[in-house]
Amino acid sequence: MSEHARRTPRISLGVEMRVTAVGDFLHAASADHFISIHSGNPVRVACHSSRIRSLRTRGDLSLMPAGVSDTWVEDDASTAVDLRLPHSLLRMAAEDMGLDPDRVGLESRHHFRDEQIEHIAWALEAESRADFPNGLLYRESLGLALAARLLARYRTQAEARGGLPASQLQRVTDYVEAHLEEDLSLASLSRVAGVSASHFKTLFKRSTGLPVHEYVIQRRVERARTLLLRGGLPTGQVALEAGFSHQSHMSRCMRRVLGVTPGAIVRSRA
């Protein structure tokens, strides 16, 4: 990875077409904000926590902020467009809107409609299906528009968490991205941040909502998913490239974080 790539903040919006079978679905807590729009036939859904049943139809949205996990049961096969919004992109939008980027958050919402978000989601779906012909700038522009809409309508006033300053957090996350395939340690990451290891653990979790080891696992899973979708490497090599000790370790983590196996991701390329 180039030095420029290591320094560039991760502000690109993730776009994924998801197909799930009947049964339980887990959304694992992530360092990114997660927006899902239902894109297929109506699906009967029951929330695990409340047991309330509802019917999800095309265009229905769900918003799960960074650090929030959820589980539900789908009685029918489901298709959706999932958008992963890095918090750095939300901060950029907050600054553009004159808001304190250290004090903004998003509220959890399920089965709601928003015409502007829907338009952005369908534009991103079309762009993804065409293999992003308009490039990164177009995707980031749509991501900023999405972040601005979310802040305008679904913003919460986050408490100051006393985590790592933005510049230190960026150094750490950039370092993680550049060294995912290596045996990362708490000591090495705390040195990058410039604080003690024990202090770093607390500050990192306050900043991201996730323990540092869980953040690294989620970034490795995302790296592996990208490599599997790209093709060209055997699954065992993908596991090593993403920093997992072996293929079965990658498979366990992928099932826990994404709810799917590596084989299912490979089959989805067809």
UniProtKB/TrEMBL annotation:
User: Does the UniProt entry include the keyword Cytoplasm?
Assistant: no
* Transmembrane regions listed in the UniProt entry: none
* Official protein name in the record: Helix-turn-helix transcriptional regulator
A GO molecular function assigned to this protein is: sequence-specific DNA binding
**Ranges of residues in domain HTH araC/xylS-type:** 170-268
> Pfam families, alphabetically?
HTH_18
Instruction: List the PANTHER family.
Output: ARAC SUBFAMILY, HTH-TYPE TRANSCRIPTIONAL ACTIVATOR RHAS-RELATED
PROSITE patterns on file: HTH_ARAC_FAMILY_2 (PS01124)
Which key words tag this protein in UniProt? DNA-binding, Transcription, Transcription regulation
Please indicate if the UniProt record lists Signal as a keyword: no
Question: Gene3D superfamilies, from UniProt?
Answer: Homeodomain-like (1.10.10.60)
